[in-house]
Amino acid sequence: MTYRFDTTARDDGVTVHVPLPVLERVRHEGFDWHVPGLRAELIAALMHVLPRHIRRAFVPAAEYAPRPS
Fold this sequence. Notes:
This protein is an alpha+beta fold. The protein has helices at 39-47, 52-55, 61-64; strands spanning 2-4, 13-15. The protein has a domain at 24-69.
């Protein structure tokens, strides 16, 4: 993966480089979770699968996920 931040460039954002021999095995599911701008969503989703006794400390998860450590 490479990342380029240039809003005027055609290749702005994340580019995934996949070798041609494995291209047919690549699925689109999961790629969006690796984008830094979507980290809060990933963290919130992971919080929802925590055991209930731990998860209760992070309600609502959407408010806790974007907080810096």
